[in-house]
Design a protein that fits this description.
3 copies of one chain form a homotrimer. By secondary structure, chain A is an alpha+beta fold. Chain A contains 5 helices and 8 strands. Chains A, B, C: Pfam families: YjbQ.
């Protein structure tokens, strides 16, 4: 049995939840692995991101999102409102602000010392609900999903644009 | 290390969320695999279905659902209402309707050309929340769960009855 | 390829959702496995518990919970209220009460025959939403997450304090 790993990069936008269709990356990793039968695990190492399985919806809204992504945003916001004030969530908290401010790379998290840059509690909670990993079947060296099945990477953090990592691990 | 795979079929009903107890299928696949230690991955290839781990509740309601399933339906419907009109969700959308209408097997998705047959946005969103895969431990060639732990396959799509597939992959 | 397994014990409290940071256990299991590349699966065998990936928040509230855990409780309770009366959920149900009362270890579930000890429908539903398993990447014999990424075990069952089990399976 072998393990084949691939790390892909995903660019996220500021001011919105960012969804990326990574289906082709996953299919390519499976092909490269030459593994006939087993599993393909897709994982995010970031706590404000998720990986999930969903249909590709052909219509795109003004924000650039597929219609099912807009609907998912609407549904999640009903219980997880945007983190727009210090009162929306108890997170981050004074000690957390201070801890981040003490990091050598504090500037990356708190540009210009702006504490509101840490108001991404909504992203943490959405990522916990949707989950950080999804497992797929590999069958005859193919991703075993129907023709309408796609793999998405979501970055729920709206505070800033970033380059995110996603791990694809094929085993069998 | 070996990979043992089994594909099981699950029948769903029209007009309701369909839950199937697939615990015996999972236990049988593990026994057949002869794998002593490792994992058992249960996966749906359908974007409107989920696999989850839950207790078996002995009471059944008038719809034929276990009580915890009725409670799960109630909870999910609070944020994901039934897709009963074109206004419930932005999905499917005009391009999506047209794409499906162009498929060779369009009749399967749109019987008699009825576009309301695609009103399953609720099912897509519920499946994303609950997830498409669950991993279990295999210990001494057994499914390592307590006596009250069961494996369920859910088809959240209420638009029509179907035969669904579920993949069980044992590795170790 | 090898399989390395470790079972850890987690103590939960009565009267609240109990969260345990098991990151060190997971990192230790990976180190002990000596597996360079592959996956680490963390699984709960209990239907009222979950495993999830989240940031460590440095502030702790009066209940002893990290701030992101308090926020998660708040969010989940919006759709899954505490099971405080026979009307909150249809679960458990008469047959379920009777089934549990017939078990040889009924006393463990129903101390003094008190049926309200089974009012943990909220815990079952929360565990289904958050999920029973999470998969991580193992890279160079390390847990492949960023410096802010932690692994948590949640026991959503508030009815009594218990010793819970969690399985860590490293494969590669």
């Amino acid at each position: 049995m072998t393990v084949y790993k691939k790390h892909v990069k995903v660019l996220s936008e500021e001011g919105k939840v960012s969804y990326a269709d990574i289906t082709e990356d996953v299919k390519k990793a499976i092909a490269e692995s030459q593994i006939e039968n087993g599993i393909c695990v897709v994982v995010t190492p970031h706590t404000t991101c998720s990986v999930f399985f969903e249909e590709y919806a052909h219509d795109i809204n003004a924000a650039g999102d597929e219609f099912l992504q807009e609907d998912l945003n609407t549904v999640l916001e009903k219980i997880i409102p945007d983190h727009v004030s210090a009162e929306t969530y108890v997170y981050p908290g004074e000690k957390h602000y201070e801890a981040v401010e003490s990091w050598p790379n504090a500037d990356e998290y708190l540009p210009n010392g702006d504490r509101t840059a840490l108001w991404n509690g909504d992203a943490h909670l959405k990522a916990t609900l949707i989950g950080s990993s999804t497992v797929f079947e590999v069958d005859n060296n193919k991703l075993a999903v129907g023709s309408t099945g796609y793999v998405y990477f979501a970055d729920f953090d709206r505070t800033r644009a970033r380059e995110r990592k996603c791990s694809i691990i094929v085993m069998g």
